[in-house]
Amino acid sequence: MNRPPCWPKDRTKPNPCALAHYARVVDGHTDLTADWLGWKQRGRWLVSPAGDRISPERMKGLLWRLEQEERLTATRNCNASRKAVRQQLVKVVVVDLADWQAQRFGTRAG
Q1: Phi–psi pair at 63, nearest 5 degrees
Q2: Residue 41 — φ and ψ, nearest 5°?
Q3: What pTM was computed for the model?
Q4: What is the mean pLDDT of residues 79-106?
Q5: Which residue did the predictor score with more confidence, 93 or 10?
Q6: 97 or 72, which is more confident?
Q7: For residue 38, is it left (φ>0), alpha (ψ between -120 and 50) or beta?
Q8: Do the Cβ atoms of 39 and 46 come closer than 8 Å?
Q9: CB 107 within 8 A of CB 98
Q10: In angstroms, rounded to a whole number, what is the distance separating the alpha carbons of residues 64 and 56?
């Protein structure tokens, strides 16, 4: 009979696959891979390679703060661009009214 690789030949030793499954499912212990290499999930905590722990509530708070800072920056940039448009230079030409009327309508006007 072929046994799956996780089944120990000696029934007195603990099954390594069962222990790993128990740690993953019951205790919530998972070692992350790929871009998260070195990070671990230990119960409700996300643990960094340096050993720093962060709870889900803290993570939600940090993500919310980053989102609000991005919104604030976008609003400030939008307001700055609107203000720049409003503060364009305007040329003012002062012309004597009599000269303007004479130029536009001739000497008979006014």
Answers
A1: -65, -40
A2: -105, 120
A3: 0.53
A4: 81
A5: 93
A6: 72
A7: left
A8: yes
A9: no
A10: 12
